[in-house]
Amino acid sequence: MKSLLIVAAALMTSWIAPLAQANEDPLLDEARKVAMSLPPKLQATLQAEIVKSDFQGAITACKEMAPKIAGEISKESGWKIKRVSLKARNDARATPDAWEKAALEAFDKRAAAGESPAKLEKGERIGSEYRYVKALPVQALCLGCHGKPDQITPEVKAALSQHYPQDQATGYSEGEIRGAITIRKTLP
Length: 188
Ligand code: HEC
Hints:
By secondary structure, the chain is an alpha+beta fold. It has helices at about 1-15, 25-35, 40-75, 90-95, 100-110, 145, 155-165, and strands at about 80-85, 120-125, 130-135, 175-185.
């Protein structure tokens, strides 16, 4: 448990790579700020749950709290927000649409070509909407639930197969792109 806390503390500082230079497009700036407000909130919840009830206990918290926190941000900001992945754990919630899928595939290519995954993002006006996606890289803390089989305890494996019989979201290494935060807003 002590080592978990150390990992968690290290993560507090590394979760968000600073992306925040002012941009000429005010919508892009706004989208970026809204999207980046999700990871710290999710992570605080996840960490608290891991400390309280270990990784397997944190799985249900993640399942219930992730959409709740996203819903709160949507209500406050007016942007729809969720997480998507090319290898979804919760496929009902996290399957990307065509635009998101293309963005995620482009992120994987750019990361493979050497770009820092934490900096990958895309914002675009599409018809009457503005859409933005930001890559979520795998960090040390994620591996207990998204890593290789030998990094996931039998208890976590059992909980995952109970809640997510179609789970595709394991086998990751640190630095790979787990998925993205995706947000959108209808323009006035
Ligand atoms: C305690 C286990 C646990 C840890 C640790 C964890 N996750 Fe997850 N993750 C989950 C569960 C459970 C879901 C499915 C949530 C749901 O039902 O919507 C999930 C879903 C996701 C999704 C949404 C897409 C999908 O596949 O459903 C992303 C993106 C994600 N996790 C990224 C991360 C990242 C990045 C980290 C590390 C910073 C991380 N997770 C750490 C358990 C975990």
